[in-house]
Design goal:
Elements lengths: L1 H21 L9 E2 L2 E2 L6 H4 L1 H16 L2 H8 L2 H20 L5 H7 L5 H25 L3 H4 L2 H27 L1 H17 L2 H10 L2 H17 L1 H19 L3 H4 L5 H16 L1 H5 L3 H4 L3 H32 L1 H11 L2 H43 L1
Antiparallel strand pairs: 1-2
Helix pairs in contact: 1-20, 3-19, 5-18, 7-15, 9-12, 9-13, 10-11, 10-12
């Protein structure tokens, strides 16, 4: 009798625990007899599925995927170093050491015929600037056009110019060429005077003697201080007169168009935009990898990590992870939730069933002993 009651208790305990576990998930849907819903249908988890999804979302947000978790796992020095290395490798491979020319990079960016357009724009701007310069120069006097500093510089150099002119004149007068010039002038002068010139020539003798005398007097004249002052005064006066003259009058026959054409041709030839754009970035910046590794990549990485850290909490709030988890859990079939839970706790649920059977058996033994004791009395 005791063994029979123990067996019955074990069966009842194990079955009730097994039924209770099954009722967590089964049935998946409510069952009806007519319009009357059968109690305990659907199971606990299907019935509380919406609350379960909401609570699961809050749990994930508050305890699993928190800003601190992301910071500890992602924003570490080791991760920053790996990100920096990755960024530097990509910059070197796809940009700094790439065989693509600047023209190809521009085409990738959507810019076509850059060289032609840039050249046209530059030449058009150059035309405008040259015309502006010509207009400014030709619409005033020398004094109005030249800067004050330039005019003062010319005035300060007048004595030097006078000294240079006199020194060159003196060197010329002392040279053989100068002597021939004096002889020719004297001979021409005496010849032009006819009989009077012949008489003077006879009186003075050979013109060579007269040339020497004239040459000495000319050199004395050049060396005289008054001559230097006279030349200074003449140059300053001429400079003052020149400053009052319109530039247009002085440059009336100047070929501006030819100058501008030559200048633009030279500028265009030296600019050579098309040729320059057919070079790779490495051709212009061979030390780019070292520079970016030292100055650019660390700065960019630090900035990005700082921004991610500052915006982490706000970004996670905007993502609304709890709502995402809730939507995903709500979209799961109940069978999937059952497999999920049982996949984790199947062994524990079996132990609960076994424990129910053991407790039922113990209770059956106790009941059998009680009945046996009562019968003995």
């Amino acid at each position: 009798m005791i063994l029979f009651m123990a067996l019955i208790g074990a069966l009842i305990g194990g079955f009730t625990n097994h039924l209770a576990i099954k009722m967590l998930f089964r049935p998946h849907e409510a069952k009806y007899i007519g319009s009357w819903r059968v109690p305990f249908t659907p199971g606990l988890i299907p019935k509380r599925r919406d609350e379960l999804a909401t609570q699961f979302g809050k749990t994930v947000t508050n305890y699993l995927l928190t800003p601190e978790t992301f910071k500890k796992k992602l924003l570490t020095p080791d991760m920053a170093q790996k990100a920096e290395q990755f960024l530097q490798e990509k910059i070197e491979t796809h940009l700094l050491h790439s065989d693509r020319t600047l023209n190809e990079w521009l085409e990738i960016a959507g810019a076509t015929n850059v060289a032609r357009k840039a050249e046209e724009k530059i030449l058009l701007t150059l035309d405008d600037q040259l015309e502006s310069v010509r207009s400014k120069i030709m619409t005033g006097t020398v004094e109005e056009v030249l800067p004050m500093k330039w005019r003062q510089g010319v005035e300060e150099r007048v004595p030097q110019i006078a000294t240079y002119i006199l020194s060159r004149t003196e060197s010329y007068f002392e040279s053989d060429e100068g002597k021939l010039m004096f002889k020719k002038l004297i001979d021409d002068f005496l010849t032009s005077k006819g009989t009077f010139g012949n008489m003077v020539n006879m009186f003075l003798g050979d013109s060579e003697t007269l040339v020497g005398k004239v040459q000495r007097e000319a050199l004395k004249f050049i060396d005289a201080p008054s001559t230097h002052e006279l030349l200074d005064s003449i140059l300053l006066n001429e400079w003052e007169k020149l400053q009052q003259r319109p530039v247009e009058e002085l440059l009336a026959d100047f070929n501006w168009d030819g100058l501008f054409t030559s200048f633009k041709s030279y500028f265009q030839r030296e600019l050579a935009i098309e040729t320059r754009l057919d070079q790779s970035l490495y051709a212009y910046w061979p030390d780019g990898a070292n520079w970016t590794a030292t100055h650019l990549t660390p700065t960019v990485t630090q900035f990005l990590f700082a921004q991610i850290e500052n915006q982490m909490e706000k970004s996670l709030r905007k993502l609304k992870i709890d709502d995402m988890v809730k939507e995903q859990v709500d979209s799961f079939p109940v069978a999937v939730l059952e497999d999920l839970v049982l996949g984790i706790s199947r062994r524990e649920f079996k132990m609960i069933t076994v424990l129910g059977a053991v407790l039922g058996g113990v209770i059956g033994v106790v009941q059998g002993l009680i009945v046996f004791a009562i019968n003995l009395t």
